[in-house]
């Protein structure tokens, strides 16, 4: 009984966060067909479950089609997802495409295969979306994934770039949405455990998770442990970007700044980092004469 209450609370929180993300980024419109990518991991099971629940009470009418790509990895339990999806009563497609052999033949033994594998998978997903007439593609990435990607790009690719909640595909044909963008991995993991989803492990291919991603995960876990709420804070920061306090000349006209200009263009004023106490002290210094030495 206790566990079922906890599960209901988790479900409510996940649905509320997902609903908010969908509304904030206008992820789903009336008449949309959304292809929901199901890998067999905790995130995609949760995504499908939450989207199905939200569709029941959404103010707009949209269609969901679940999709799993069977990449022909050795040991992949091909019967699990069709059985699960049929029982759920959702429209679904299972796509058979042996990307595993392609990856194995192209990447030398011992090297990380994930980037080629994901590119191939993306191609199959986009093709399937076209075939089933889906205009949106929903992926199960959550808030922690987005923050980890930010740090990966920052520390290993020297770019201030994360993983957006909504994205136009390169060919412009589809919009990729990440409805779990406001959900924490912790909530999803607890929910998936409670729901006892038939999880299919992600490492059947034998590939090691990207080493840099592992390091970022460990770094954020450590920060969150020592200073709880850091992942949430970093995600919030992604929604409050201040171009005048970065250094990208394409985002802010630094060349055009002149004395006598409009201070309002400097979003956040001339304080670089202003913890509250300092912000409170500064006004009290107004009018105190300066001791200037020649
Ligand atoms: S872990 Fe294996 S299946 Fe998953 S992306 Fe990497 S190579 Fe592909």
TrEMBL record:
Pathway(s) annotated for this protein in UniProt: tRNA modification
Keywords attached to this entry: 4Fe-4S, ATP-binding, Cytoplasm, Iron, Iron-sulfur, Magnesium, Metal-binding, Nucleotide-binding, RNA-binding, Transferase, tRNA processing, tRNA-binding
UniProt keyword annotation of Disulfide bond present: no
EC numbers on record: 2.8.1.-
Amino acids binding [4Fe-4S] cluster: 114, 117, 205
PP-loop motif (motif): residue ranges: 39-44
Recorded catalytic activity of this chain's protein: cytidine(32) in tRNA + S-sulfanyl-L-cysteinyl-[cysteine desulfurase] + AH2 + ATP = 2-thiocytidine(32) in tRNA + L-cysteinyl-[cysteine desulfurase] + A + AMP + diphosphate + H(+)
Subcellular location: Cytoplasm
SUBUNIT field: Homodimer.
CDD domains assigned: TtcA-like
One GO CC annotation: cytoplasm
Pfam families per record: ATP_bind_3 (PF01171)
Lineage: Bacteria, Pseudomonadati, Pseudomonadota, Betaproteobacteria, Candidatus Accumulibacter
Chief subcellular location: cytoplasm
Summary of the function given for this chain in its UniProt record: Catalyzes the ATP-dependent 2-thiolation of cytidine in position 32 of tRNA, to form 2-thiocytidine (s(2)C32). The sulfur atoms are provided by the cysteine/cysteine desulfurase (IscS) system.
GO molecular function: 4 iron, 4 sulfur cluster binding; ATP binding; magnesium ion binding; sulfurtransferase activity; tRNA binding
An example Gene Ontology biological process: tRNA thio-modification
The protein's name: tRNA-cytidine(32) 2-sulfurtransferase
Additional remark text: The thiolation reaction likely consists of two steps: a first activation step by ATP to form an adenylated intermediate of the target base of tRNA, and a second nucleophilic substitution step of the sulfur (S) atom supplied by the hydrosulfide attached to the Fe-S cluster.
InterPro entries to which the protein is assigned, alphabetical: Rossmann-like_a/b/a_fold, TilS/TtcA_N, tRNA_Cyd_32_2_STrfase, tRNA_thiolation_TtcA_Ctu1
CC cofactor note: Binds 1 [4Fe-4S] cluster per subunit. The cluster is chelated by three Cys residues, the fourth Fe has a free coordination site that may bind a sulfur atom transferred from the persulfide of IscS.
Record-stated family: Belongs to the TtcA family.
């Amino acid at each position: 009984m206790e566990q079922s209450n906890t599960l209901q609370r988790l479900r409510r929180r996940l649905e509320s966060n997902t609903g908010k993300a969908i509304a904030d980024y206008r992820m789903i419109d009336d008449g949309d067909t959304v292809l929901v990518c199901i890998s067999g991991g905790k995130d995609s099971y949760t995504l499908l479950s939450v989207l199905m629940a939200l569709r029941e009470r959404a103010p707009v009418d949209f269609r969901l089609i679940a999709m799993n790509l069977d990449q022909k990895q050795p040991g992949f339990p091909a019967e699990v997802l069709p059985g699960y999806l049929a029982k759920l009563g959702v429209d679904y497609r299972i796509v058979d495409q042996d990307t595993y052999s392609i990856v194995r033949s192209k990447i030398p033994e011992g090297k990380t295969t994930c980037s080629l594998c994901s590119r191939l998978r993306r191609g199959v997903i986009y093709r399937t979306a076209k075939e089933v007439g889906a205009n949106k593609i929903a992926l199960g990435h959550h808030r922690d994934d987005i923050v980890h990607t930010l740090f990966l790009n920052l520390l290993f690719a020297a770019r201030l770039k994360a993983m957006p909640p909504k994205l136009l595909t390169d060919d412009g044909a589809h919009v990729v949405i990440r409805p779990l963008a406001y959900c924490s991995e912790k909530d999803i993991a607890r929910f998936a455990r409670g729901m006892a989803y038939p999880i299919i492990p992600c490492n059947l291919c034998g590939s090691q998770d990207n080493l840099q991603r592992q390091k970022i995960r460990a770094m954020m876990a450590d920060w969150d442990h020592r200073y709880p709420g850091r992942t949430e804070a970093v995600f919030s920061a992604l929604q409050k970007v201040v171009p005048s306090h970065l250094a990208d000349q394409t985002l802010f006209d630094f060349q055009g700044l002149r004395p006598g200009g409009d201070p309002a263009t400097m979003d956040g004023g001339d304080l670089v980092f202003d913890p509250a106490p300092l912000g409170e002290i500064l006004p009290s210094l107004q009018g105190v004469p300066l001791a200037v030495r020649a």
